[in-house]
Amino acid sequence: MDSVDTEVLKSAANWLAAGQRVTLATVVKTWGSAPRPIGALLAIRGDGLVSGSVSGGCVEDDLIERVRAEQALERPQVVTYGVTKEQAERFGLPCGGTLQLVLEPLSKSSGIDELVRRLGEHELVSRQLEMATGDVTLSSAHAPDLLEFNGTVLKTVHGPRWRLVIIGAGQTSRYLAFMAQALDYQVTVCDPREEYAVGWDVDGAVLDRRMPDDVVLAMKMDAHSAVVAVTHDPKLDDMALLEALKSPAFYVGALGSRLNNAKRRERLAQFDLSAEEIARLHGPVGLPIGSKTPPEIALSILAEMTAVRRGALDPQKALVPRGTAPASVDPLACS
Asked: Which end of the chain offers a freer environment for a tag, N or C, measured as fewer CB atoms within 10 Å?
């Protein structure tokens, strides 16, 4: 599964290869309650076909008409929606939200083919667009890099800016790895067990056969990293958690019941972890949505990761036991 912006870029590349005229719209600034985040992409084909979204449907029709009417942009240009109350009402922008977009006419020299190729190799890529000339430069990027626009140069960052390490290659891991890739995560699955590793077949998710603690240490977890342990085997899960909880990873979780996670915290306390580090553990992992099946459990885990990542859920509040039932009910670990 590709991330949303990669799908947009792939569509643009395919249309260009077919000889179609293509315009790429990028959200570069927002004010108020804008419906889509900075960096959101929309590719518009000359005949009005689109891929992606920059406003959830609010301004797309106007952009299509603009592209059709102008037939062919010669240079990138800036377009702003929602400056006035009337315009906000016309385009359905909520609560006076305002969007500023860069419209860029694409060509073979726009580097879209190379960008898609590098994204296919799981590379994080920075794309720099000169507004005056339309010239494009591609270079390697780093996880903390963000979109920058000063009116003269537009720098966008593409690829998996977030990393997820899953300990265990079981059934839940398959759904978790598949869904996580759609959310811009570069996924690594760690499982040294032969019987699980042999059957691993999730495209795009790297399988690492080393011991979990070695994998976590080697990957140098940062604030854009998450670690989730799902093997039910303390010898594997705890090894990963010991290193992950000492790292800057924004999310560390472990599957299992409240009782199992209480026992896990007791085990972790016997090692060189502080009480504050142990308190970072999300266990039971995931939001309390009543999940029972592997895909539902994966959904609850990613929902909580997203809430923490977006600042919608206080990480400390998320660690306090909730109610009387596990957040993610794992039928195999309810003892």
From this structure: C
What sign has the CA pseudo-torsion 300, 306, 308, 313? negative
Tokens in use for 4? 């949303």
> What are the tokens at 41?
């992409």
Burial classification of residue 79, based on how many CB atoms lie within 10 Å of its CB (0-12 exposed, 13-18 middle, 19 or more buried): middle
Q: In the prediction, which pLDDT does 199 show? A: 86
pLDDT on residue 225:
93
Residue closest to 174 by CA, chosen among 156, 154, 150, 196: 196
CB 129 within 8 A of CB 154: yes
Alpha carbon distances (Å) from 199 to 116, 169, 191, 202: 29, 9, 11, 9
Tokens encoding 19: 């000889």
Q: Which of 232, 304, 308, 244 lies closest to 271 in space, CA to CA?
A: 244
User: Which among 7, 155, 14, 136 has a CA at the least distance from the CA of 75?
Assistant: 136
β-bridge partners, 154: 129, 149
Tokens of 90: 């016309």
Matching residue, tokens 């990613």: 302
Q: How many helices (H) and strands (E) does the chain have?
A: 12, 15
Strand 50-52, strand 77-81: pairing: unpaired
Question: Are 166 and 189 a contacting pair, CB within 8 Å?
Answer: yes
Element (H, E) at 105: strand 98-105
Angle of the 171-182 helix axis to the 294-309 helix axis, nearest 10? 40
Cite the DSSP H helix spans in the chain. Answer: 4-17, 60-70, 85-91, 112-120, 171-182, 194-197, 212-219, 234-244, 258-268, 275-278, 294-309, 315-318
Q: Which residues in the chain land under pLDDT 50?
A: 1, 317-335
3-state secondary structure of 130: strand
Residues in the chain: 335
Q: What is the DSSP string of 212-242?
A: HHHHHHHHT--TTEEEEE-SS-HHHHHHHHH
Please name the residues in contact with 224: beta carbons below 8 A apart, sequence gap of 6 or more: 143, 144, 161, 162, 163, 250
